[in-house]
């Protein structure tokens, strides 16, 4: 039976992979927090094989808190106690072989088994963190994260955030489209080989957001100094995602 998401592909920048997808996830209560960062700073932190993707000549760093649910392998139901947990990503944007994608500096998650499996199977810098997520009566999110993994530097993030607009899809060619509509991630192994992981979803159901960020040392844990300017904020209540296995390019 064809997954309903596979019926909506016209918005994709390239065709779906010919292979079958391997995993389904739902991303909930997600906040995109973006700052412009000098290209030289980001270039020094990403593998040399990648081209840093820029907007108007500037690199961008994203910090993305959210909650994952309905994690399951293709054709199987969610596995009890492993199918839902909060996650917090630090990311930038790269291009490889003509395909723009996401490069992660770190991915903090409140699930030890998921952390170890993702590090091994996807060559991603997952780290264990103690993360608490609460919902206020008005639909806002209170998010607190403290990294507890010795493989990464100490990092804290505490924020409250909420949507403040109607849902919209970003316009092709716009800055928010460039920041969010990306359909693969990249990673490298210890030998320096490049891997691509394709993903698929409908267009992001974005909303303008407001946020109060009281603690944030996520970027600093990677040696990145954030500018003293307000970040760009976008919110998405829910997005269902299909994920393919890693492909060495």
Automatic annotation (TrEMBL):
Family matches, as Pfam families: DUF2071
UniProt lineage: Bacteria, Bacillati, Bacillota, Bacilli, Bacillales
Top-rank lineage group of the source organism: Bacteria
InterPro entries: ADC_dom_sf, DUF2071
Organism listed in the record: Paenibacillus thalictri
The protein, known as: DUF2071 domain-containing protein
